[in-house]
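To whoever picks this up:

The parser on our side crashed when reading a file containing two proteins. I've narrowed it down to the boundary between the first structure block and the second sequence. Both blocks are reproduced below exactly, byte for byte. First block:
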Amino acid sequence: MSVAQILGNDGDRVAEVTLDGALVVSVLDSLVPTGYNFIALGYTGADLTTVTFKSGGSSGTIVGVLTLTYTAGVLQTVTRSA
């Protein structure tokens, strides 16, 4: 049982404090959606630029997308959408 929850900008739980005072952090929950069974990777040149999570296989419903941006080949940002 949690006594406090920390929510991300999208309303997803990213951490909680339990009754015994432990801080439980769920970083993956804030980036990777639940309920997916297929991941599609998209590249621009050699750079990985999108990671698309789907439910229902390769032609299923998109449940989350990570967009990665680079400057001179160096990863700068990862943004979640969908």
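<<boundary where parser fails>>
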Amino acid sequence: MLLTKVVRALSEPIISFGTFLGISVVLTTDLDTRLSVHEAVCAERYKSIENSFERVEKRFDDGSAKMKRLEYLLYAVMVAVLLGPGAAAIFFKKLLGL
């Protein structure tokens, strides 16, 4: 619906009353209409951009949580490698209660 209003408003010619000192004199109501349509289109575009930023922020937050889990897993693997497989096995046995 908004797109049809935009196309209709932008396809209408600007009514010109000639020139005065090299400046075109046009009907102000037509300019007001075209400006209103332009503002409406830009408002929709701005909402779309805001929504896309919100989706990107959510994806970053989800990715951050996944990276934290991977970070802790890497720390556990580094400790297991540094202490050796025997110490890691003993630790996991105590951790699991075996």
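After patching the parser it read the second block fine. The radius of gyration is 32 Å. The chain has one domain: 2-96.
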